Amino acid sequence: MRTFLRGPFTCVLSPMNEISWIWMPVVLFAALAQTVRNAAQRSLIAELGTLPATLARFLFGLPFALVYLLALYALFAGIHVMPKFSLTYFGWIAVGAAFQIAATAALLLAMKGRNFAVAVTLSKTEVLQVALFASIFLHELPTALSLLAMVLATVGVLILSLPASGSRASLAAWASRSAMYGLLCGACFAIASVGFRGAALELQESSPWLSGAWGVLWAQTFQSICLGAWVTVRNPGGLRPLFKAWRVSLLAGSMGAAASLAWFTAYAMQGAAEVRTLGMVEVVFSYLVSRRLFREPMRRSEKVGMWLMLLGLVLVCTSL
Q1: Is residue 196 part of a domain?
Q2: Residue 240's domain spans which residues?
Q3: CA distances from 83 to 3, 69, 138, 180 (A)
Q4: 62 or 76, which is more confident?
Q5: Among residues 9, 22, 64, 7, which one has the least CA distance to residue 208?
Q6: Which of 32, 52, 181, 189 is nearest to 110 (CA)?
Q7: For residue range 29-58, what is the model confidence (pLDDT) as tens digits?
Q8: I want to staple 53 with a disulfide (CB 3.0 to 4.6 A). Which of 44, 208, 247, 248 is the partner?
């Protein structure tokens, strides 16, 4: 075991097989930061469009990721050795970054259809798809209890996402092109999570904090270059509208970087399926904030969905 600090902080940078519970508060922080980032991005989407708003998350988050990485090296003695990056590592990072962008594109295509609500609902199957792809590509098989937790949490989110009975989508909507884009969106997000988890395993860095910091820096650099080039060529005015809205972009970028750093750190600590399952607590955060803001009563089906999802989250925390 490599120990980077002495005294009460020794465990902070120790290998995660000795402090397996720390990934849970890290994921909770990631979900909370992502909720704030989503709120900032909504205003950017209305002002700039979806792709420029998505680019703001990566481009304006890069400086925060770099500062965080440098701070780790500056503050903690004994971690000045550079990790050994490999082509396989960069391959996993590229896969994760590319599929994260592809997931956004699939969601955009779903938005153009009439059955967007159904598409969003089906995109919530991401957690089960993460378990499937992690089993295939990383040979990480979930336990029976973890799988039950994933199913309960997914069913709960699906119930929450369904429209009210008076406006329930027809059966045809579930076989529409929008629905297929929703499933594609969930699959792309799932593969992205597996890619980032694969990168963390390949790096074999003893400190999950360093692993997460390097992962975010490389992934967001890749995404900023690729998506930035696309927006520059295809968007009227190029990147200028993005920099004009720098205040909100900085908020979205900083919160996006904080969320990504936490996600990547959690991937270095725990399997992607368990991380994404607990990460569904973001839905609870967003839902409760929305209900509190508009003071709307919860329907019976929504209460059932919320309790099912919370039960799944508790089970995934106790099954490891």
Answers
A1: yes
A2: 23-318
A3: 16, 12, 21, 40
A4: 62
A5: 22
A6: 181
A7: 998 898 888 778 777 877 888 788 889 889
A8: 44
Query: For residues 117-153, b (16+ Cβ closer than 10 Å) or e, as one string?
Result: bbbbbbbbbbbbbbbbbbeebbebebeeebbbbbbbb
The label of the residue with tokens 């593969």 reads 191
Would you say residue 6 lies in a domain? no
- The per-residue DSSP string of 279-306 comes to HTHHHHHHHHHHHHHHTPPPPHHHHHHH
DSSP state of 237: T
Residue 109, pLDDT > 80, answer no
Rounded to the nearest 5°, which phi and psi values hold at 316?
A: -70, -25
| Residue 10 forms part of a structural domain | no
Cα separation, 309 vs 112, whole angstroms: 29
Structure tokens at 13: 């940078």
- CA 285 centroid distance within chain: 15
Cβ neighbours for 33, distance < 8 A, ≥ 6 positions apart: 255, 256, 258, 259, 262
Looking at this protein, which amino acid is placed at residue 273?
Answer: A
Backbone angles phi, psi at 297, to 5 degrees: -70, 150
pLDDT for res 117:
61
Number of structural domains (the chain) is: 1
As a three-state string, the secondary structure of 188-228 is HHHHHHHHHHHHHHHHCCCCHHHHHHHHHHHHHHHHHHHHH
Residues 6+ apart with CB under 8 A from 50: 104, 108, 111
| Helix 246-269, helix 50-59: angle, nearest 10 | 60
Please report whether residue 14 resides in a domain: no
22: tokens are 């720390």
